[in-house]
Amino acid sequence: MRRLVVLRHAKSARPEGVTDHERPLAPRGRRDAPAAGRALAEADRLPDLALCSTAVRARRTWELAAAQWGTPPPVRHDPRLYHADVPELLDVVHGAPAEAGTLLLVGHNPGLEDLVLTLAGDGLDDTLDRVRATFPTSAIAVLSWRGAAWRDLTPGAALLTSLIVPRGGRRQPARDA
Question: Where is this region: Disordered (predicted)?
Fold first, then answer.
């Protein structure tokens, strides 16, 4: 069983004169990102490899989340994840090494939400409806599927097993299979 964990960056600030790529996290984002890391640890969904957008808000989300774990996995900062659409995101996922059983993507909407909805052929409980309604900052979607290699992941092939929305130490309960 392989898992794709999709983490939307935490809440960002919009300071005047700062490019979109360089936007930092807002105070709420600095609280929510560590909560995302704790939520992944509590749900036993720590990745073998993280692929992170090069945008400051995504990199900082990764740093704060990963700081919650004893030994963070390797991370690759990939510029293709910045404002990526579904085909670009799938290209990145398809290039992941086979030895990574659990892969984490840290990036941006609307691409991440669209990716989750594209890959999920089904979802446990109301997870799909919840993603369709909103995929807010710091949201974590966990998709599971059976496949030999990441390049084999196709639309509709995965099961959306949980959706977690951490908020400054509080989170919605995980709904896992």
Answer: 10-39
On the 0-12 / 13-18 / 19+ scale of CB atoms within 10 A, 44 is exposed
Cα–Cα distance for residue pair 124/108, rounded to 1 Å: 24
pLDDT one-digit tens code per residue, 111-133: 999 999 999 999 999 999 999 99
Of 28, 14, 36, the C-alpha closest to 139 is 36
pTM recorded for the entire structure: 0.93
Cα-based distances in Å from 174 to 7, 21, 33, 85, 124: 14, 31, 17, 27, 11
List Cβ neighbours of 74 (8 Å cut-off, separation of 6 or more): 49, 50
Range of the structural domain that residue 130 is part of: 2-164
Residue 172 in any domain: the answer is no
